[in-house]
Amino acid sequence: KKILVLNGPNLNLLGTREPAQYGSTTLADVEAMCRAAGERLGFEVECFQSNWEGALIDRIQEYGRLCKEGKALGCVFNPGAYTHTSVALHDAIKGVDLPVIECHISNVHAREAFRHHSYISPAAAGIVVGFGVAGYVVALEGLVRRHDPDNA
Ligand code: DQA
User: What are the recorded GO MF terms, alphabetically (predicted)?
Assistant: First the structure.
Protein backbone atom coordinates (compact mmCIF):
# COMPACT_ATOMS: atom_id res chain seq x y z
CA LYS A 1 0.00 0.00 0.00
CA LYS A 2 1.03 3.56 -0.72
CA ILE A 3 1.23 6.72 1.40
CA LEU A 4 1.55 10.17 -0.18
CA VAL A 5 3.85 12.75 1.41
CA LEU A 6 2.55 16.00 -0.05
CA ASN A 7 4.29 19.36 0.27
CA GLY A 8 2.85 22.70 -0.76
CA PRO A 9 4.26 26.08 -1.81
CA ASN A 10 7.84 27.14 -1.03
CA LEU A 11 8.70 23.84 0.61
CA ASN A 12 10.94 23.10 -2.41
CA LEU A 13 13.16 25.78 -0.82
CA LEU A 14 13.65 23.84 2.43
CA GLY A 15 17.24 24.05 3.60
CA THR A 16 17.82 27.61 2.39
CA ARG A 17 14.45 29.18 3.20
CA GLU A 18 14.39 30.94 6.62
CA PRO A 19 16.66 28.32 8.24
CA ALA A 20 15.99 29.76 11.71
CA GLN A 21 12.34 28.81 11.22
CA TYR A 22 12.57 25.65 9.12
CA GLY A 23 16.11 24.29 9.67
CA SER A 24 18.81 23.42 7.14
CA THR A 25 17.53 20.02 5.95
CA THR A 26 16.56 20.01 2.26
CA LEU A 27 13.28 18.68 0.85
CA ALA A 28 15.23 15.86 -0.85
CA ASP A 29 16.58 14.86 2.59
CA VAL A 30 13.08 14.99 4.11
CA GLU A 31 11.69 12.87 1.28
CA ALA A 32 14.47 10.30 1.69
CA MET A 33 13.72 10.21 5.43
CA CYS A 34 10.03 9.62 4.69
CA ARG A 35 10.72 6.84 2.19
CA ALA A 36 12.99 5.12 4.74
CA ALA A 37 10.30 5.43 7.44
CA GLY A 38 7.76 4.02 4.98
CA GLU A 39 9.97 1.01 4.32
CA ARG A 40 10.30 0.40 8.07
CA LEU A 41 6.52 0.63 8.47
CA GLY A 42 5.78 -1.57 5.47
CA PHE A 43 4.38 1.08 3.11
CA GLU A 44 5.52 2.60 -0.17
CA VAL A 45 5.94 6.34 0.34
CA GLU A 46 5.44 8.54 -2.72
CA CYS A 47 6.57 12.16 -2.43
CA PHE A 48 5.21 15.15 -4.32
CA GLN A 49 5.73 18.90 -3.96
CA SER A 50 4.04 21.71 -5.85
CA ASN A 51 3.73 25.46 -5.59
CA TRP A 52 0.36 25.19 -7.38
CA GLU A 53 -2.87 24.70 -5.46
CA GLY A 54 -4.54 22.79 -8.31
CA ALA A 55 -1.69 20.29 -8.59
CA LEU A 56 -2.06 19.55 -4.86
CA ILE A 57 -5.81 19.08 -5.32
CA ASP A 58 -5.21 16.65 -8.21
CA ARG A 59 -2.94 14.49 -6.02
CA ILE A 60 -5.45 14.51 -3.13
CA GLN A 61 -8.20 13.35 -5.51
CA GLU A 62 -5.93 10.65 -6.95
CA TYR A 63 -5.09 9.31 -3.47
CA GLY A 64 -8.75 9.45 -2.47
CA ARG A 65 -9.41 7.05 -5.37
CA LEU A 66 -6.44 4.83 -4.44
CA CYS A 67 -7.69 4.64 -0.84
CA LYS A 68 -11.14 3.60 -1.97
CA GLU A 69 -9.55 0.85 -4.06
CA GLY A 70 -7.54 -0.29 -1.02
CA LYS A 71 -4.23 0.67 -2.69
CA ALA A 72 -3.31 3.57 -0.38
CA LEU A 73 -3.55 4.40 3.31
CA GLY A 74 -3.63 8.19 3.26
CA CYS A 75 -1.49 11.27 3.09
CA VAL A 76 0.92 13.34 5.18
CA PHE A 77 0.38 16.92 4.06
CA ASN A 78 2.26 20.13 4.71
CA PRO A 79 0.13 22.66 2.82
CA GLY A 80 2.53 25.57 3.53
CA ALA A 81 0.80 28.94 3.35
CA TYR A 82 -2.28 27.37 1.67
CA THR A 83 -3.04 26.07 5.19
CA HIS A 84 -4.26 29.54 6.06
CA THR A 85 -6.04 30.40 2.81
CA SER A 86 -7.41 27.39 0.97
CA VAL A 87 -11.04 26.37 1.16
CA ALA A 88 -10.36 24.42 -2.06
CA LEU A 89 -7.84 22.12 -0.34
CA HIS A 90 -10.22 21.64 2.59
CA ASP A 91 -12.99 20.69 0.15
CA ALA A 92 -10.68 18.33 -1.79
CA ILE A 93 -9.84 16.33 1.36
CA LYS A 94 -13.49 16.23 2.47
CA GLY A 95 -14.64 15.46 -1.07
CA VAL A 96 -12.67 12.23 -1.39
CA ASP A 97 -12.65 11.31 2.31
CA LEU A 98 -8.83 10.99 2.34
CA PRO A 99 -7.15 10.33 5.72
CA VAL A 100 -4.73 13.26 6.01
CA ILE A 101 -2.23 14.03 8.73
CA GLU A 102 -1.52 17.76 8.56
CA CYS A 103 2.12 18.51 9.30
CA HIS A 104 3.91 21.78 10.03
CA ILE A 105 7.63 22.05 10.62
CA SER A 106 7.34 25.17 12.78
CA ASN A 107 4.95 25.74 15.66
CA VAL A 108 2.50 27.91 13.74
CA HIS A 109 0.70 28.84 16.98
CA ALA A 110 3.82 30.54 18.34
CA ARG A 111 4.09 32.69 15.19
CA GLU A 112 2.06 35.46 13.51
CA ALA A 113 -1.69 35.52 14.16
CA PHE A 114 -2.43 34.84 10.46
CA ARG A 115 -0.83 31.40 10.90
CA HIS A 116 -3.06 30.41 13.82
CA HIS A 117 -6.04 29.43 11.67
CA SER A 118 -5.98 26.36 9.43
CA TYR A 119 -8.57 25.51 6.78
CA ILE A 120 -7.02 22.04 6.65
CA SER A 121 -7.31 21.02 10.33
CA PRO A 122 -11.12 20.46 10.34
CA ALA A 123 -10.65 18.03 7.42
CA ALA A 124 -7.57 16.30 8.90
CA ALA A 125 -7.41 13.00 10.79
CA GLY A 126 -4.54 14.37 12.90
CA ILE A 127 -2.08 17.24 13.17
CA VAL A 128 1.67 17.35 13.89
CA VAL A 129 3.05 20.81 14.60
CA GLY A 130 6.39 22.20 15.72
CA PHE A 131 8.68 19.14 15.73
CA GLY A 132 10.82 20.36 12.85
CA VAL A 133 11.26 18.03 9.88
CA ALA A 134 11.12 15.03 12.29
CA GLY A 135 7.38 15.76 12.37
CA TYR A 136 6.97 14.13 8.95
CA VAL A 137 8.05 10.77 10.41
CA VAL A 138 5.83 11.30 13.46
CA ALA A 139 2.94 12.00 11.08
CA LEU A 140 3.68 8.85 9.04
CA GLU A 141 3.77 6.75 12.22
CA GLY A 142 0.51 8.35 13.37
CA LEU A 143 -1.19 7.59 10.06
CA VAL A 144 -0.07 3.95 10.18
CA ARG A 145 -0.88 3.48 13.87
CA ARG A 146 -4.34 4.95 13.36
CA HIS A 147 -5.00 2.28 10.73
CA ASP A 148 -3.18 -0.54 12.58
CA PRO A 149 -2.70 0.19 16.31
CA ASP A 150 -0.11 -2.62 16.66
CA ASN A 151 2.21 -1.23 13.96
CA ALA A 152 4.65 1.74 14.32
C1 DQA B 1 4.55 25.76 7.44
C2 DQA B 1 3.92 26.92 8.22
C3 DQA B 1 3.15 27.85 7.28
O4 DQA B 1 2.58 28.92 8.03
C5 DQA B 1 4.10 28.44 6.25
O6 DQA B 1 3.38 29.25 5.34
C7 DQA B 1 4.88 27.40 5.54
C8 DQA B 1 5.43 26.28 6.30
C9 DQA B 1 5.43 24.88 8.34
O10 DQA B 1 5.76 23.78 7.92
O11 DQA B 1 5.80 25.28 9.46
O12 DQA B 1 5.12 27.49 4.34
O13 DQA B 1 3.53 24.95 6.91
Answer: 3-dehydroquinate dehydratase activity
